[in-house]
Amino acid sequence: MSFLALLRHGQSQWNLDNRFTGWVDVDLTAEGEGQARRAGTLIGECGVAFDKVFTSVLTRAIRTGNLALEQAQLLWLPVQKSWRLNERHYGALTGLNKAETAEQHGAEQVKIWRRSYDTAPPPLDEASAFDFAKDRRYEGVKDLPRTESLKTTLERVLPYWDEAIAPDLRAGKNLIIAAHGNSQRAIVKHLFVVPDDQIVGVEMPTGNPLLIELSAALKPLSAHYLDAARAEKIPVLPG
Fold this sequence. Notes:
This protein has a single domain, classed as Rossmann fold. It contains eight helices and six strands; from the N terminus they run βααβαβαααβααββ. The chain has helices spanning 13-16, 30-45, 59-71, 98-105, 107-115, 150-170, 181-192, 196-199; strands at residues 2-8, 52-55, 79-81, 175-179, 210-214, 220-225.
């Protein structure tokens, strides 16, 4: 048996500005920092002895993890970073204001791009200022995405889950994953076997750890948000 805490990063500046962020390395707001610290208090009080932290290579997730660990007096825990835990790549929508994009393309089309399981936005233009292939943190990564749906996000998260995260859980280690709404939703879909048409309704609240108790076979035995007042609906546990 082991425990897994899924922690979505706190509010970022582009969350506040209502812009599609994706892989852009935007920092936390003061409110986001506060959310991360409150998450750390919850982690420190939950009664689980955590052993390790996984995070993406994006500042807002890394700082959320660090601030939470500091608050929980767990800064000594080892942290492992991977681009495979990055937020979903929003393609040509990257950097755009969500409301203005809905006015231009129609609210229904934007809803499909944002919420459908397997429909990705148009790909990022190679001339875009957000060409992540030029970013050093992705050196050596083949076939970087230029857009992603939740389905393709899950497809790049799963190899890292299988190779790095699952072995630690099977060994009985208790883990924290400080990452993003969509990379976390991908993990939730995998663990809870959420149908494609239902995962679109799953939300991960910012700064509110979802604590999942797992069997030796990594099947969820229980799950609850540590801040019950800000909890979102949790998928039904697999039978």
